[in-house]
């Protein structure tokens, strides 16, 4: 389905003819709408343009794993994998489509009322709405039980107060799932997921577009809620106190997404590095002809092969409804650790050029670092795995 730098056969669950055609169409769409020269501009602007979301909606790339009867494309998680992989292979992975598709929309589909599905999923599928989920706060990251944002019932609405930070798609999103306490005295049991349509919402403010060391074209923001009125019917599922359970049930897919993105980016790095060392000369011969280069790349290819096989196993388990939280945590932490390790090794083979931002390996190096932080830090992943011992 792509230039397979690892020379691995396509896993059986990805060998569907329609899926292969979809893969080709996604690759072409990225080439047409998000080529490297445009992405360089978007990195400088710290955001992709809003109309890219509309173009993705027009092309059927939004809501790909949602059923057609609910306003989606009618695919499954494999289609999300295709999009994440192609974005990673082509260096367009700053576009926050996987969060919109494979994190935000599933909350509505899995837990929303029929009215909520009808109200939001078609608009998320078209690109009219751009999705984000506001979990992290200045004082609460991986520890979601520690959030302070509140949504207190008052008449026919909630009054939302608090702040969030590091919110992906934060500058462009106009549909935000806010993790809030509807009953602060109940701790995790008092957590509810509240959907906010931000257009015209009084008291809602966006902070600055945060400047990051990597993933620069992915807008990331602070969000502020100052007595924001939200209709009671915007609580996902129409009931309170289910938010923490819903988060815990959906986080395995988010963590698998991160692993899928990590292996795709690493494969792109290996492809770029092999091409570079075959062309670059030092001391009268190609860099690839040095035994050290061959050994380093042999190690990288081996590690990425193991990672790819494990990620494919996790995807298959997830498609069968068998991926548990601990295994998803293993995929997230181990793949992202390997990603950082091998990209560092590959950058070294570029020498000084690897430190120059015009070379893709430099961007891959910067982008890789956050993978070990978001979606729950890798230290938290180890804690979750340790609970199964």
Give the arrangement of secondary structure elements.
Blueprint (H helix, E strand, L loop, with lengths): L16 H17 L2 H10 L4 H9 L18 H13 L7 H15 L2 H13 L4 E4 L15 E5 L2 E12 L6 E7 L9 E7 L6 E6 L10 E12 L11 H37 L1 E2 L2 E2 L4 H29 L5 H25 L10 H9 L9 H9 L3
Parallel strand pairs: 1-4
Antiparallel strand pairs: 2-3, 3-7, 4-5, 6-7, 8-9
Helix pairs in contact: 1-4, 4-5, 4-7, 5-6, 5-7, 7-8, 7-9, 7-10, 8-9, 9-10, 9-11
Rg to the nearest angstrom? 21 Å
Which range does the strand content fall in?
Answer: 5-15%
Strand neighbour order, sheet with most strands: 2-3-7-6
State mean pLDDT (0 to 100 scale): 95
**Order of helical and strand elements:** HHHHHHEEEEEEEHEEHHHH
How many helices? 11
Structural class: alpha+beta
Distance between the termini: 38 Å
Helix fraction bin: 40-55%
| Major sheet size, sense and barrel closure | 4 strands, antiparallel
Q: Count the beta strands.
A: 9
Poorly predicted sequence stretches spanning 5 or more consecutive residues: none
Which geometry do the CA atoms define?
A: globular
